[in-house]
Amino acid sequence: MPEPAEPLSEYRTGSDPRTLRDALGCFATGVTVVTCLDGNGQPAGLTANSFTSVSLDPPLLLVCVAKNAASAAALIRASHFAVNVLQTHQQPASIRFAAKGEDRFGATPWSPGEFGPPVLRDSLGVFECGAHAVHEGGDHHIVVGEVLRASFDAGLDPLLYFRGRYRRLHFD
């Protein structure tokens, strides 16, 4: 009988961009699509996994948006935005909103939220926010929003991202 294969493992240390990116990829995250209306009233949005709660009182959250993202200018100027937390069946939307040159909203079912920003249909959760602050964070904008409305569907499972790949929850 053959011996079991050794598990693949790798240990690296350093502060170079590749090591940093790979180490940060060890933190499993949910996947969101952040949406708003641009200055012309057209929907804009992008995929982001840098998202977190900041405060419950007042209710604040933040998302980090790459400064070179096509929708960055619209998001930092918007009076309202939505964070759409994606569920497992929305992986195509995540890919679409991360790609350049895609018709993001033409192929993704959405409707205007209560405060105006596009809300993606069938999302696991949605946070509609009023703009609270924008901070500089290296090559990203840190966009802080005041949560005006939150909704979720407890019957759905989250789309996860870990070590550069989409993942799903596994329960035994």
From TrEMBL:
Organism of this sequence: uncultured Sphingomonas sp
Residue intervals of the Flavin reductase like domain: 24-168
Signal peptide as annotated in the record: none
Any GO MF annotation of the entry: FMN binding
Entries under InterPro entries matching the protein: Flavin_Rdtase-like_dom, NADH-dep_flavin_reductase, Split_barrel_FMN-bd
Name of this chain's protein: NADH-FMN oxidoreductase
UniProt lineage: Bacteria, Pseudomonadati, Pseudomonadota, Alphaproteobacteria, Sphingomonadales
Keywords assigned: Oxidoreductase
Superkingdom of this protein's organism: Bacteria
